[in-house]
């Protein structure tokens, strides 16, 4: 079933996304960091100041989980509660669709912040398989923050977010997943000089000042 989904994704990519990307190849910044590092907060600020579209893998998965008739709703729900990484076929097909829709609506919108992706080796390989040559990954914007600060921020967010994973039990698992699966991906990009690290433990405005300096220099 999942193989079929990825198959569909790779077959459809040559159609719409390839046609659109022939005109304008999408520019992508991957945004990574621990749960609660402030990825979403900073992406919102970037979108206000620059012509970027924010695509959060987590938000897209939560939206798909809630979509009436989704065949993946239950599976996504279980993975999110367990803090585990949802199979790449689902995530990539959602990301691809969101990119296509954005660029088809407005062809000047070809710069994307892809937040919470690639989170593990499977994500990375899936991206390379489906998107190689079809998007230009500029760099990884890495929000570096201690586990303790990340956990406290998520617990605080959990008071109003309604998220099923902003609780101590899910957070322990999410931090483990981040350390075991996502950090090695950041290290791989680092070896190729493709990581821009920001100290995310400071205030929102201080973090954003550093983000702006990076984007003004690089993007
Ligand atoms: P992520 O997208 O990385 O999971 P969020 O952007 O949702 O993180 O931030 C997690 C929580 O921490 C939110 O409640 C947010 O308001 C808060 N937050 C984000 N950045 C900061 C910061 N620099 N200082 C203090 N709190 C922050
Ligand atoms: P986030 O909103 O980024 O904190 O992500 C919340 C949860 O969504 C994660 O703990 C995972 O279960 C799932 N998720 C987010 N991004 C991905 C991804 N790239 N691949 C698979 N699952 C993901």
UniProtKB/TrEMBL annotation:
Where CMP binds, per the record, is at: 123
* Primary location group: nucleus
Carries keyword tRNA processing? no
Q: Provide the binding site for a ribonucleoside 5'-phosphate.
A: 62, 84-86, 116-119, 163, 174
Q: Does the keyword Transferase apply?
A: yes
Q: Where does ATP bind?
A: 36-41, 157, 202
Residues covered by region (NMPbind): 56-86
| Listed HAMAP family | Adenylate_kinase_Adk, Adenylate_kinase_UMP_CMP_kin
Summarize subunit and interaction data from the UniProt record for this chain: Monomer.
Give the protein name, as stated in the record: UMP-CMP kinase
Recorded source organism is: Ataeniobius toweri
